[in-house]
Amino acid sequence: MTTPFQRARSEEQRAVRRQAILDTAAAMLTEMPVAQVSLNELSRRVGLAKSNVLRYFESREAVLLELLDTALREWLDLLDGTLATAVDTAGGPYERGDQLAGAIADTLSARPVLCDLISAQAAVLERNISPQIAAECKHATMANVTVMIRLIRAHVPELDEHDAMGCAAAALMSAGAVWTHARPSAAMLAAYEADPALAAMRLDFTTTLRELLEVLITGLLTRALRC
C-alpha cells in the first residue's frame, strides 16, 4: 500500500526521492529480469503512486536506462583494475588481444544485471522514451564507450581509435546478444535435456563471448599490422 504523497519541496528532497526510486529498481533487478520489472511494482515498493513516480522519471524505461549507465560505469572501473593484471605487457599483440577478450568476458559474466540491461537496451529500453531522454542516454553511452576505447588502446595499442571503437561497440552488442541466447526458456531447456543432439546448441555466456571477442580482436589486429 502506498503512503500519502508529499511533494518534495527542495532540490535536495527531490534528489533523495529520485535516488530512492533508482535504488528500489536496482534491488528489483537482483530478484527478477528486466522484462518483469513493472512501473506498478516499482511504485508499490518505493511507496508512491505511479503518477508520483512519473514526476521523477517519464517511464519505467527511463529509470532502467539510468541504471544501465551506472552499471556500465561500475563495470568499466572493474575492467580497468582487472586488465592491469590480466594483460601481460610483455606479450605479443595477439596474446594481449586474447587476454583483453578474456577480461571483458569474465567481468561482464560477473555482472548479470548489466548484461540483462544491455540485452534489453535497443529493443526495449530505448522505445518508450522522449527525444530528450534518448539524447541523454546516447551521450552517456558515448562517454562510457570513450572510457572503454581508452582501456582497449592502453593494453592493445596496435589498434587505432577507429578499431578500438569498433571493438568496444561490438563487445557490448555481442554481450547483449549472447546473454539472450545463453538464457533459454523453460521449453528450450527441456528440449536440450531430452535430446543430446540439441544440447550442443546451448551456449555458455562467458565462453561464447570470449571466443567471439578473440576472433574479432585477432581480425582487427591482423588488418592493423598488415597496413
From TrEMBL:
MF annotations from Gene Ontology: DNA-binding transcription factor activity; transcription cis-regulatory region binding
Residue ranges annotated for the HTH tetR-type domain, each copy included: 15-75
Binding region for DNA: 38-57
Matching InterPro entries: Homeodomain-like_sf, HTH-type_TetR-like_transc_reg, HTH_TetR, TetR_C_34
Record keywords, A-Z: DNA-binding
PANTHER family: HTH-TYPE TRANSCRIPTIONAL REGULATOR PKSA, HTH-TYPE TRANSCRIPTIONAL REGULATOR RUTR
Name of protein: TetR family transcriptional regulator
The organism of origin for this protein: Streptomyces scopuliridis RB72
